Amino acid sequence: MTQTDVRPDQTFRGILGTGIEEGLLLKPVTYQWAMDLYDQAVANTWFPNEIQLGEDLADFERMSADERAALTHLMSYFNPNELLVNKALAFGVYPYVNAAECHLYLAKQMWEEANHCMSFEYVLETFPIDRAAAYESHVTVPSMAAKEEFEVRFIKRMTEQTLDITTTEGKQDFVRNLVAYNVILEGIWFYSGFMVALSFRQRNLLRNFGSLVDWIVRDESLHLKFGMNLVLTVLEENPDVATPEFADEIKQMILDAVEMEEAYNRDLLPNGILGLNADYINTYVKYLADRRLDELGFGAHYGVANPAKWMAAANDTLQLVNFFESTNTSYEVNARQG
């Protein structure tokens, strides 16, 4: 970056910072990938009621008890966790980023997470689901509560007064939070649930609900792109962050997350449903984890094939550079999908 590229409101210090008076001018744009993602997110704007979920009611009524329980379980998890992501963005990302274009995207992402929450509320309002039981599950089902506890731990680290984003330790905490929410929650756990949700449409059930999930997945793919670009930029601008010990810690976070998701999926489908059981979903979870590990530069750990190739259009959306070895050069908004 040349001095002529510096915004008139600040001396360039990189993407991280907490100065209230910094990042108040948009042009010249420093991080074009953030501006491009904001533009794409605005173009993707949608509203839940544009989809006629009521047309799926007949399907819901003829589903088995296990199938209806699985859908309720998904709503129990997705609904509060969309709001949890917003807390992570508000407390753990937005305050520590300088660039105005990043703030614009994060504001749009927070609106999208709220829109996703309202989408799942729409599902709860449309189908005869016990809302109180669905709300209660995220604290009473141990596997679901364990995942939430894992994520909350990282928000608390970001909100402690001792966090100093100018230190190596503070920057590592920032990256940990991004990995916990962007890579694990949105990039593995959410996609595992999306696969289950979309599996009904594979059997010609809940087709409109499937369309709603498609729109959510489209948003989440941009969230994943933004978060990964942000991680890569932090690492590029702060080479002190990616120590071998820190890399090992990040990898272990993902492996621990797979174990938590395996337990969750056993509670999601204790008896299995037509064409789907916990082992099938957990193979897909390991495939997703291998994708994320590979994208982060670690290489695959589980070595499993994708059991749900029909989901390729939803989750094979990234062309990433190596997390710990390369600079942020090839990761673009319109990167080749495959």
TrEMBL record:
Record-level Gene Ontology MF annotations: metal ion binding; ribonucleoside-diphosphate reductase activity, thioredoxin disulfide as acceptor
Its EC number(s): 1.17.4.1
Residues bound to Fe cation 1: E82, E113, H116
Residues holding Fe cation 2: E113, E186, E220, H223
Reaction(s) the record says it catalyses: a 2'-deoxyribonucleoside 5'-diphosphate + [thioredoxin]-disulfide + H2O = a ribonucleoside 5'-diphosphate + [thioredoxin]-dithiol
CC cofactor: Fe cation
Keyword Nucleotide-binding among UniProt keywords: no
Enzyme type, top EC level: oxidoreductase
Keywords: Deoxyribonucleotide synthesis, Iron, Membrane, Metal-binding, Oxidoreductase, Transmembrane, Transmembrane helix
NCBIfam families referenced in this protein's UniProt entry, alphabetically: PRK09614.1-5 (NF007186)
Purpose: Provides the precursors necessary for DNA synthesis. Catalyzes the biosynthesis of deoxyribonucleotides from the corresponding ribonucleotides.
Annotated protein name in UniProt: Ribonucleoside-diphosphate reductase subunit beta
Organism classification: Bacteria, Bacillati, Actinomycetota, Actinomycetes, Propionibacteriales
